[in-house]
Amino acid sequence: MEKNRAQALASVLKGLLCAVVLTLLLMVGVAALALGVRISDGMLTALNQVMKLLSILLGAAVAVGRGGRRGFLTGMTVAMLYMTVGYVCYVALGGNAFVVSQMLGEILIGGALGAVAGAVLSNLPEKRGRRTA
């Protein structure tokens, strides 16, 4: 039982780490793009939402994997932790202009996206190794 919990925690942390790393890489890309091209605030907001979406999907994919177990719960947990960590970092870096209900709404929407991604992944057949002749 303890082994299963440790494995579940490890997979969640691995998915969370991958999601955070992807976000950081995408942020560097957006910053480089912003230096070369004039980007409006609306476009930055849209790119931010796309970064969150891609990061949640990657985090759920890494944590659950094809044919994984407890995909719904694992995907939701990764996504909600990712969104919470994002808001904690935002506040810690001095960003205090946000609406709490909007923040909670985004965390719940992120959790729903992660849950759906995890459920879909866990219902896909496991990848089989390559067959050799």
Topology:
Blueprint: H1 2-36, H2 41-64, H3 71-92, H4 100-122
Helix pairs in contact: 1-2, 1-3, 2-3, 2-4, 3-4
Structure report:
With 133 residues, the chain is mainly alpha-helical. The protein has one domain (2-122). It is 78% helix and 0% strand. The protein has 4 helices and no strands. The longest helix has 35 residues, at 2-36. The chain is globular, with a radius of gyration of 17 Å. The protein starts with a helix and ends in an 11-residue tail after the last helix. The relative contact order is 0.15. The model has no long low-confidence stretch (mean pLDDT 89).
Q: Quaternary state, please?
A: single chain
Let me know the average pLDDT: 89
The best one-word shape is globular
Which percent range fits the helix content?
over 70%
Give the class from helix and strand content and strand pairing: mainly alpha
- In angstroms, what is the radius of gyration? 17 Å
How can the largest sheet be summarized?
none
Range of strand content: under 5%
Order of helices and strands: HHHH
pLDDT < 50 stretches: none
Gap from first CA to last CA: 40 Å
In total, the number of domains comes to 1
Number of helices: 4
